[in-house]
């Protein structure tokens, strides 16, 4: 990485709390981050609206290539998700 | 910042550098010196040059001859009255064989030194990891010189003047009867005929109906020919085993099917993976590190369930639990068929004995398991091996330490809901074949008194609450040594460090084991974390998304075992290398093999798997 040592302090707000993960909006409309519970260090019970902070650097591209393995996994995953969503909608209509 | 007399003593052989401006003529004391632990960074960044610097023990009490600014390294030209310190290396005359070994060792890496007849092994990997094994041992106070040509005798851990050898005591035993399965088919009823397992058609609907949150369930039977197919994220790998008669987990007889495992996978109704982040689903044979204690063996048939749970419940506690419970409906039916089998079909019988060795060094294994919630949970002590019925979720128990016997661990007392990341998570099958428990149980120099499972809660105050209980438990057990293991990395390293501190502060030797390397570097540390073993196997020291790649294996267990023995024998532990260096492990493994005369076979890593060229270039 070319800029890996440019570490900046980021702040965010917890906007989603699940048993296994939290969703964090980065302050300044800079994005959204979802992390598993174990990657979050907490002194108090986790609640929506709490502010969090961490250090990060910019995300850099590693190169122009496309990794076919990830690409194919992603396509399969998305296709499946679409199909399952459609099925799920159909099921709901039937039950209604 | 100046240092204390205690720190100065610890760092007696480290460079002496002024912490602040000092006038000529003063007598140099600890208050004038900087803490040596920060020097590495300063040297790296070019702010400090330690060439020709004197050590702390040399300059304490000497006089400064020139007024110097802060961070000035103390060299002979600014100090008068330097203390002569004996050079340790030259004190004893090593016998010839030792000298030979010394040369050989030193040429491999500078990490290893032999000084005064002590073979020092250094396993610095991000954090402190050292082993020291006396080569030509001088037996304790008696001072009996043992022949130097016996580097094979590792530290005799039993106290030197062992008055009389107390006999070993077998507390209980566990028998595993293996039944071979070569084919899995669907049929009108669940049964085993010879080596063919039939799973009842239509069992899927019943399994799905058993859980309110489960919308549907599909069974795929994956034979080795189908390894190269897409699969959802693997949530768990489980052995299929059942107790005989009224036997309970951890004793009596267990029947187990060889050649077949249960694999839990699933998504929510919208197709979102259960309890997972990112792209770890994919082609099976590219994503599984075969043969790890928790992973399938190559050649095994997978009974793979694909559970679909209600949308949006994939990250809530009931979701992953429902997927596991629904899968267990199928496993339970196979267990019932397994219980009916005739003994003539047994292909192999194994017996595990829980042996106590009074008089030997008493040790305990503390296994930290996840307890933050949802998929970060484990079911403890089910009625059947790796079952669901009768088990209590670790989170519901408040993550407090639970003591189990080593045989209960090997008999499937943990049903793991296994969270992220795939490379470091310990699957249910991992406990069934737990290498550290096996190695310690069979080590004749150690007395393994039990295994403590302790959950890792989310909130820091709860983490310290449970780790204080671990410390108290170890104190009450009166152990000489303890292993603390954890899976993966993240906030669980906070309680991992705290467990080690709580045990270490009671004067108990402790060795920590975790995946650390590059990506999982510890977030916290304390002065008791000097003996650490890294479970990393990946080439570049990262979470490489390959199932079970970086989990605890026999090679790690052996390193931890020798490290704990060395520490209990009172060997001094050296500092680690500053950055993760995979060579340290290789050197240590080689040294252990040389000393014990038994080769330590290292397991393969992800490089042995089929992998696209691009991924190879990018990732490793």
UniProtKB/TrEMBL annotation, chain A:
The lineage of its organism: Bacteria, Bacillati, Bacillota, Clostridia, Lachnospirales. This is Uncharacterized protein. It comes from the Bacteria.
Automatic annotation (TrEMBL), chain B:
It comes from the Bacteria. One of its GO terms (molecular function) is D-proline reductase activity. InterPro entries: D_pro_red_PrdA (IPR031002), Gly_reductase_pB_sua/b (IPR015417). This is D-proline reductase (Dithiol) PrdA. It comes from Faecalimonas umbilicata. The gene is prdA2.
